[in-house]
Design a protein that fits this description.
The chain has 298 residues and is α+β, with helices and mostly antiparallel strands. It is built from 8 helices and 18 strands. A hairpin with a 2-residue loop joins strand 14 and strand 15.
């Protein structure tokens, strides 16, 4: 069988929309995956015609044009947990109630709110998450005491947390207790830890933008499909991005195919929010999504 028709098992599972590639590796390690009834090892290749199953349930291969993939933007409310574990009360999957199997790209802490992507396309997850790809994430942060020039300078330059120093970032003061920060990293509780190191406590944290996608009029608990224009720009931005950690080798992979047009809808009545943003790029200023209202699917 030609190697060009083979596909790594973790990629086959993530492409199917079952989970991310990293989660697929965990399933394989836990021996919950079979190929033609046999339990494979990490790195095993899937051949055309092979039957792959997780916990005995067959995994369907991805559609060639990815027309069956889901890409949504969700305004996560405070108190919702960014997990696919359904036994966790207030998990993000139950909160959204989507009819297809989806999972979050990255996470927001339970006490934080704002924009998070969810998808059924495991192939795109790590490409967006990799810090070295320098994909912007913008937050509006409220702290417990007045901001100082020293605070802004130190946050912008980098703060020692988690045995490393955070990458330089953009910080802008909005008011006495509120600032906007743009990160290209996703360290665990990064903003809260950075503030704590400088003697501040975060009282409110809201993510307002990921790459070229902003919250706009999405209220907490609302979600919408990403538009064709948004996905085209995301695909362009991650075309040359790493899909996996540097220690893993996945071989040459083709750039992602363009994604089908998505109808934009909201699952609750929309209203405008107060937002704090840096200047947008030309690509962001053009082609904003027009929202039409729709009830949350039952």
């Amino acid at each position: 069988m030609s190697s060009s028709t083979e596909k790594r098992l973790n990629k086959f599972i993530s492409d199917s929309g079952f989970c991310s590639r990293r989660e697929a590796d965990k399933l394989i390690e836990q021996q919950r995956v079979t190929i033609n009834g046999s339990k494979p090892e990490l790195g095993t290749k899937v051949q055309p015609g092979d039957k792959v199953a997780v916990d005995g349930k067959l995994i369907k291969a991805i559609a060639s044009n990815k027309s069956d993939r889901v890409y949504i933007a969700y305004n996560k409310p405070i108190g919702i947990t960014s997990t696919t574990e359904l036994h966790v009360k207030g998990n993000i999957i139950d909160a959204i109630g989507h009819k297809q199997r989806i999972f979050p790209i990255g996470r927001l802490d339970k006490p934080s709110e704002g924009l998070i992507f969810l998808t059924s396309d495991g192939d795109i997850v790590n490409k967006i998450l990799r810090a070295e790809n320098a994909h912007d994430k913008e937050y509006v942060v409220t702290v417990d005491k007045p901001l100082s020039e020293r605070f802004v300078e130190r946050m912008s330059r980098g703060v020692p947390i988690l045995d490393t120093v955070t990458k330089p970032c953009k910080v802008r003061v909005n008011s006495k207790f509120v600032f906007t920060i743009i990160l290209t990293q996703g360290l665990n509780r990064q903003i809260r830890r950075m503030c704590e190191h400088l003697g501040y406590e975060v009282t409110k944290l809201k993510r307002t933008r990921i790459m070229n996608v902003s919250l706009d009029n999405l209220r907490p608990g609302q979600w919408r499909n990403l538009t064709e224009a948004e996905m085209a720009e995301i695909n362009q931005a991650v075309t040359h991005s790493s899909k996996t950690a540097p220690t893993q080798t996945t071989g040459a992979e083709k750039p992602k195919q363009g994604l089908g047009k998505k109808t934009v809808f909201v699952n609750k009545a929309a209203s405008s929010n107060t937002r704090y943003k840096f200047q947008k790029s030309r690509s962001q200023r053009s082609g904003k999504a027009t929202l039409s209202l729709n009830k949350k699917p039952r």
